[in-house]
Structure formats: structure tokens, C-alpha cells
Write a structure and sequence with these properties.
2 strands; mainly alpha; globular; 3 domains; Growth Hormone, Chain: A; single chain; 578 residues; 72% helix; 17 helices
Length: 578
């Protein structure tokens, strides 16, 4: 990320305290505290990707159940992200930062002690997601009121670079901890680091200026988008479990039977219809609030800008396609290729490094071609990289055969992600840029949630289908072993392992059948992800073409200038995870 000083603010002090107007002598310590918080959030999901197979075995759960740890986190994060920024405007961003970090640490503690997937979802997806949604918007607001001019641009650059580095090295850290210690240490690190961030904020982070007026909070809108998206993701992820139309499994909530198999329709039909009604109501209510001049959670009038409208659609699709590789590939490498979690992380490291390289290249390309063109190039590179990964997926694949696809895919992510935010905000009025930034991050998290739900279900269904068909056609295994294996595959899907006492020859045969079934399911999932990213590339051609940035500009400069000119009370900071 290239950053140089904004050209219209040469005489302003380097940094200031929002309350007193004096420079903050502890501003660099504040930046360090903010970076700690950003690392916690950015690492949190990527560190778990390589640990999925190990968690499946330790908690004796299934892929569709465990995917709620990842999709649930993204869903909670997305649902509360904009309201988290609004709460910061009302009660102070330092206060919300402290509350968010504290919740994040508590959620990590619960997740680290989890003995069931339900407790893990509570700690990671619910409590940590809530903490992140409060914490992350406040980090940008704190930087915008702590730094000014050249130093503010530097602070924003450090914020963005930290996010990219954390995502890149998260799988390596997760693999090391899972292999040498336990996947639980992926959460225990947060338990150790979060109190350090809280103590540092209390000692060194100055309080911001008090708001002269308080914006209205659209709590009904937040409730509708949260519940609607929850029901939608539930329907997509659990359709294979409870049935897409006819019920194949009873739905229980704890000890209570809520939806028996004797009902004419599956529970997923009901939840899908309810999701559609709630989300449609959200649109109606938000547009009515906008017409009355109140403060809706999301201003649909912003969609009149083509770059914003099609940019958000592209972000959703981009996030769905990216999660396909990040979810499907680690599962395949550990379950089919039997890599350790540490080896898995090292195999995926080139992908993260390529993202960083692609982002740097994207920033420089904007001086020759428009940011929109850079984003389009990135999406096409992602599609090409995904195809290369698909072609390499087979039992016994080598790191060398997988490497080209990972590099091309990662560079594509870097190119697209580094410029999509710039494109999305290019036509948005400065006074609305905070809301638009929040919508951008929300769209990304929703795309990740939907992608995880669809891909997790697809892998489970395809693996089970192909493995059961292969087992039924097999003439080597004894009927008893074959019948037990069919029941086990139907129950456990990709995480199936032969029962104790099974002979070595039968174990080898079952392992071969499952590896081929999982490789077929992974290729199918990756092909679907490729198609999704390619659709995103086509959508990007609907965005305005734009012009290259001036030689003295960069994306970070433009964003820093925008933050400097926004009234902190009018701005609802959003998390720009690009």
C-alpha cells in the first residue's frame, strides 16, 4: 500500500488530540494498540482454516456443523458492523474499543475450553463476532482522530499492511499450534493478548471529543438484517442435513423437538421463506426511513451510484469465491493427503504472500490504468488461478503442482481487493463515505458467510454421494465392512474414519475410496467458486471505467483526505478490510 502525504494539509500539526486540540505524544503507542486489535481480528478466522479436520475429530462433529464456527462469525460480524460504528459515535470509540476487545477475549476463552461444537460456536461465532464488530470500526475512528496529515496516511497504511500480513501468516501460525500443541491455542493467544490491548488502551489511549449530538440508532434495522441473514445462511448450510424440500431429519433445539420428520415440508423451507420475508421487510423499512429523513442502517439511495451498486455485488461474489479455496483446500489437504496442520499452513503460505504482493502491484498500477481496470484484472487472475488449482486437485498431488494456482489466485485477490474499496467509494459524497465503507465490509462478510454455507454443504453432499456409490460398487471389501463404512460415511461425511479393529488392507481400501470422493467434491466446489468469481469479473464491467490516479495520489492518500474532511459526528466508520 503506497502512502504519501495529502497535498492539501501541509501546515497542519502532525497529530492531535480530538478533545484538547494538542498533539498526542503517545500517538505511536496508540497505533501499536490498534494494530494488536487488528491482528486479533484478521488472524482469528485464517488461523482456524488449517485446523478444521483436527477440530472435527476432537469434537466428534460434522463439516456442516463446524462450518457455523466460520460462517457464524462472519454473519455476526457483518450483522453488527455498521451498528458498531454508530454506537462508537454515540458512546465514544475508545469506550467501544475497550468493550469490543474485552468481549473478544471472553469469547476466545470460551472457545478455547469448548468440549462441543455448540460451545465453540457460542464463543467464536457469537461472542467474538460481537466483539470484533464493536472493535474494528473504532480502530479507524481512533486513528482518524489521533493522527493528521502525513502521519495519518502512515497510520492507515500500517493498519492495512497489518491486516494483509495477519491473514497471510494466520494459517502458518494455526498449523504450528495445532501440530505441536493444540488448536485451542489459536484461541488462547487471544486470551493472553486481549488484556494487553485493554490495559494499553486504558493507560495510553486518549479519550476522543464528546459528541455534541447523538445520531439515531436503527435497532429494528439491525435486528432484521441479523435475523434475516441468519435464517438465510441456516437454510443454505443445513438443507443437506434436514432436507431441501421433504424432511429427512428432525430439527431439535437442545432437548426440544421443534420440527419432526412427519411434517410435509422440511424446516429449511420454512426458514428460507422467513428469511425472504424479513429481508424484504428490511428493504421496505429502510427505504421508508430514508424518505422520512431519519437515520436508516443502510441508505438504499446510495445504490443509484453505479460504482457503489455493482461494486457491492462484486464484493459479495468475490468473498464467496475466495472462501471456496480457503475452506475447501485445507480440508482436502488434511483429509485426503493426510498433511499435518503445520504442513497445511506452510502449503498455503504462498497464497497469503501472493495476496500482499498483488496488493502492492495493484497500488502501483493505478497510476497507469484506472482502479476499476485493476480490480477487473484481479478478478480475471482469480478465475485463472482457481482453474489451475482445480486441475491440480487429485489424490497424491504435489506442492509443486498446486503452487502456480495458489500464486495466481493470491495475486488476483490482492489486485482486486486493493482497489475495490476505492472504486466503491469513488462516487459517494464525503459525508456518506463512512456509511458506504461499512456497507462494503458488511457485503464482504455476508459473501463469506454465504460462501462458507454453500461450499460446506456441497463438499459434504458430494463426498458422501460419491463415497457411498463407490462403496456399493466395491467387490473387494467384505459386506459387513462395506455396510459399516456406508453408515459411517453417511453420518460423518469427509471426516469419516474406519472403526477400530478394521484390517490394514480394508483401511487402505476405505482411505482410497474416501480420498477419491473428497477430491471429486473439492474439484466440484472449486469449479463452483471459479464460476462465482468469473461472474464477479463480468459484473465489474458494469462499473464506471474511471481514470488512473495522479502520480502524487494513492488509494490510501485519497481515503486519508476523506477521513480528515468528515465531521466525526456525521461519520459512521466502517471496516475496510482491503
Amino acid at each position: 500500500m503506497d502512502v504519501s502525504a495529502p497535498t492539501d494539509d501541509r501546515t497542519a500539526p502532525a497529530a492531535w488530540d480530538a478533545a484538547s486540540g494538542e498533539p498526542d505524544p503517545q500517538r505511536w503507542i496508540t497505533l501499536g494498540i490498534v494494530i494488536i486489535a487488528v491482528v486479533l481480528i484478521a488472524v482469528d478466522i485464517s488461523v482456524l482454516n488449517v485446523s478444521i479436520p483436527t477440530i472435527l475429530r476432537d469434537l466428534d462433529t460434522t463439516v456442516p456443523a463446524l462450518q457455523w464456527v466460520i460462517t457464524g462469525y462472519s454473519l455476526t460480524f457483518a450483522s453488527l458492523l455498521i451498528i458498531g460504528g454508530q454506537l462508537g459515535d454515540v458512546y465514544g470509540h475508545r469506550r467501544l474499543f475497550l468493550i469490543g476487545v474485552t468481549l473478544f477475549g471472553i469469547g476466545s476463552l470460551i472457545a478455547s475450553l469448548a468440549q462441543s461444537v455448540g460451545v465453540l460456536i457460542l464463543g467464536e461465532a457469537v461472542i467474538e463476532g460481537m466483539g470484533a464488530s464493536l472493535m474494528l470500526p473504532s480502530t479507524l475512528a481512533i486513528l482518524s482522530t489521533t493522527f493528521q496529515g502525513r502521519e495519518r496516511a502512515t497510520a492507515f497504511a500500517a493498519w492495512g499492511a497489518t491486516t494483509g500480513a495477519a491473514v497471510a501468516f494466520g494459517p502458518v501460525l494455526g498449523g504450528f499450534l495445532t501440530t505441536n500443541y493444540s488448536w485451542r491455542w489459536s484461541f488462547r493467544i487471544n486470551v493472553v493478548v486481549a488484556p494487553v490491548a485493554v490495559l494499553g488502551a486504558l493507560l495510553f489511549m486518549r479519550k476522543g471529543a464528546k459528541a455534541t449530538r447523538r445520531p439515531d440508532l436503527d435497532l429494528p434495522g439491525a435486528a432484521m438484517i441479523a435475523s434475516g441473514m441468519f435464517l438465510l445462511v441456516f437454510s443454505l448450510s443445513q438443507g443437506s442435513v434436514y432436507g431441501w424440500f421433504e424432511p429427512i431429519k428432525a430439527f431439535h433445539l437442545g432437548p426440544w423437538l421443534l420440527w419432526p420428520t412427519t411434517r410435509p415440508l422440511s424446516i429449511t423451507v420454512l426458514t428460507l421463506v422467513a428469511a425472504g420475508v424479513i429481508l424484504a421487510s428490511f428493504v421496505v423499512v429502510e427505504r421508508a426511513m430514508e424518505r422520512r429523513g431519519t437515520h436508516p442502517l443502510f441508505e438504499f439511495g446510495l445504490l443509484q451510484h453505479r460504482s457503489f451498486r455493482y461494486g457491492l455485488l462484486t464484493v459479495v461474489i468475490l468473498a464467496m469465491g475466495q472462501l471456496t479455496v480457503l475452506f475447501a483446500l485445507p480440508l482436502f489437504l488434511q483429509e485426503s493427503e493426510h498433511l499435518s496442520a503445520q504442513e497445511n499452513g506452510l502449503w498455503l503460505l504462498p497464497l497469503g504472500l501472493a495476496v500482499i504482493v498483488g496488493a502492492q502491484i495493484g497500488g502501483r498500477l493505478t497510476r497507469r490504468i484506472s482502479p476499476t481496470a485493476v480490480a477487473r484484472l484481479g478478478l480475471l487472475c482469480e478465475s485463472a488461478g482457481s482453474i489451475l488449482v482445480v486441475l491440480s486437485i487429485r489424490p497424491g498431488l504435489s506442492f509443486a503442482s498446486l503452487l502456480p494456482g495458489l500464486v495466481v489466485f493470491g495475486v488476483g485477490i490482492g489486485l482486486a481487493s486493493s482497489q475495490l474499496t476505492n472504486v466503491i467509494l469513488s462516487e459517494i459524497p464525503v459525508a456518506k463515505s463512512g456509511v458506504a465503507s461499512g456497507a462494503n465490509s458488511t457485503a464482504r462478510q455476508i459473501g463469506s458467510a454465504l460462501g462458507g454455507a454453500v461450499i460446506g454443504s456441497l463438499i459434504a453432499v458430494r463426498t458422501t454421494s460419491h463415497a457411498v456409490a463407490a462403496l456399493r460398487a466395491d467387490r473387494i471389501l467384505s459386506p459387513a465392512v462395506r455396510d459399516r463404512a456406508i453408515g459411517g460415511v453417511r453420518a460423518d461425511g469427509p471426516s469419516f474414519s474406519p472403526a477400530e479393529g478394521t484390517s490394514k488392507l480394508d483401511v487402505a481400501r476405505l482411505d482410497s475410496i474416501l480420498s477419491h470422493a473428497l477430491s471429486d467434491a473439492t474439484r466440484t466446489a472449486l469449479l463452483m467458486g471459479t464460476a462465482v468469481v468469473f461472474v464477479g469479473a463480468l459484473l465489474s464491467f458494469l462499473m464506471p471505467r474511471g481514470e488512473p490516479l495522479r502520480a502524487s495520489e494513492s488509494q490510501a492518500e485519497t481515503q486519508a483526505e476523506a477521513f480528515e474532511s468528515i465531521d466525526p459526528i456525521d461519520n459512521v466508520p466502517g471496516a475496510v478490510l482491503d
